[in-house]
């Protein structure tokens, strides 16, 4: 994911105030690095990794821990709900927190 975010024009096209919602399972360190990189470019990084079995995802029963700036999480909540988030759990503003929860619960 770092390569994609660092690729040519990614952050410029996202723009100031743009939000990158990461639903991937990356390391907490990667999440923190990406958050810092976005902040330097005026955009925001929000973690929202899902953890459910494939059949639950198909049934739109997603469980989603989130981490990132409060205002950004509020902006993306309708998107997560439209994708089928049954439970959205806020783990604060520090990048790495939501992914840490997912890694802890699924290991």
Helical residue percent band: 40-55%
| Approximate shape | globular
Largest sheet: 2 strands, parallel
Measured by DSSP, the beta-strand proportion falls in 15-25%
Number of strands: 4
**Uncertain stretches of 5 or more adjacent residues:** none
What structural category do the secondary elements indicate?
A: alpha/beta
Please tell me how large the radius of gyration is. 13 Å
Helix-strand string: HHEHEHEHEH
Biggest sheet: strands side by side, in what order? 1-2
Question: For this entry, what is the oligomeric state of its chains?
Answer: single chain
End-to-end separation in angstroms reads 22 Å
Report mean pLDDT, rounded to a whole number.
92
How many DSSP H or I helices? 6
């Amino acid at each position: 994911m770092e390569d994609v975010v660092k690729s040519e024009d990614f952050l410029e096209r996202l723009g100031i105030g743009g939000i990158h919602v990461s639903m991937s399972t990356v390391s907490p360190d990667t999440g923190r690095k990406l958050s810092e990189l976005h902040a330097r470019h005026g955009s925001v990084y929000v973690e929202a990794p899902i953890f459910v079995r494939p059949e639950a995802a198909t049934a739109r029963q997603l469980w989603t821990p989130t981490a990132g700036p409060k205002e950004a999480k509020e902006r993306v909540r309708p998107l997560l709900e439209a994708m089928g988030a049954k439970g959205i759990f806020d783990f604060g503003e520090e990048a790495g927190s939501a992914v840490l929860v997912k890694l802890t619960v699924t290991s």
